[in-house]
Each structure stands twice: as C-alpha cells, then as structure tokens.
Amino acid sequence: MVFLLLVAAGGALVLQNLAMSAVAARASSLLIPLLLNSITGLCLFLGLLLWQAGPAGLKELAQVADWRAFLPGLLGSFFVLASLMGYQRLGAASTIALLIASQLACGLLADAIRFGPASLKPMTLFGALLLAAGAALVVSRAGR
C-alpha cells in the first residue's frame, strides 16, 4: 500500500509542477503559483483539521506551533520553489533526475547517521551509484 502511495505521489509531483509552471507562465512572478499552492494546502488541511477535531484541533495547533514547527514548511516551500525553477529552466526530466539523486544521497547519509555506516550495504551503494550515473546522463542531455 505504501509503495503504491509513493508511486502516486511521484506522479502527482510531476503534475503539480507542470500545472504550477503553466500558472507561472501567465504570472509576473514565481511567487504567484507558490502562494496559490500554499493557500490551497492551507485551506485543505485547515478544513480537514476542523472536520476531524473541531475547535480543539485549532487549540492543539496553537500549542505545538513553536519556531521548530515552521522549519518543515520552510523546507517544503524551498523544495517547491526549486522544483518550479527547475521545470522552467531545465525541463521536467532533468529536474526530477537531480532531485531524486540528491534526495537519495541525503537519504543514505541520514541512514548512515541513524543506523551506522554498516547499514549501507554494497548493493545499496551500487544502486545509488547507478541512479547518480543515470541522473548525470539525463541532465547532460538537457543541454542539447
């Protein structure tokens, strides 16, 4: 189930960035599609929280919202901004290749820190190397 959810999310990310690129083409600033994206998510999740927990959900939201709680939103907004710029300047395939390769490299580092370097098996590292090589090939073709 989680595998299918992740596959669907990967496809949704491509559609999201293509749709945001279309909005950006009609707007004077990248901030327009970024704000529309954020406003949509805010309204959706606020509505779901109210539906699920009612006013108590808003109270809990206020209680857990210290400065650390905003870091994921900042990082997510940075990711969306970088993705949109990549789609506009490099195209979808090159952007996705770079994002996935960098996510895998950081994921390997995070696993090595959390579980120890021995957790990174040779075949895992070989697979990561192949993915990085594939990303390099995809990105090198973008310049043509």
UniProtKB/TrEMBL annotation:
The chain crosses the membrane at residues 34-53, 65-87, 93-113, 125-143. Pfam families: DMT_YdcZ. The keyword Transmembrane applies. Keywords: Membrane, Transmembrane, Transmembrane helix. This is DMT family transporter.
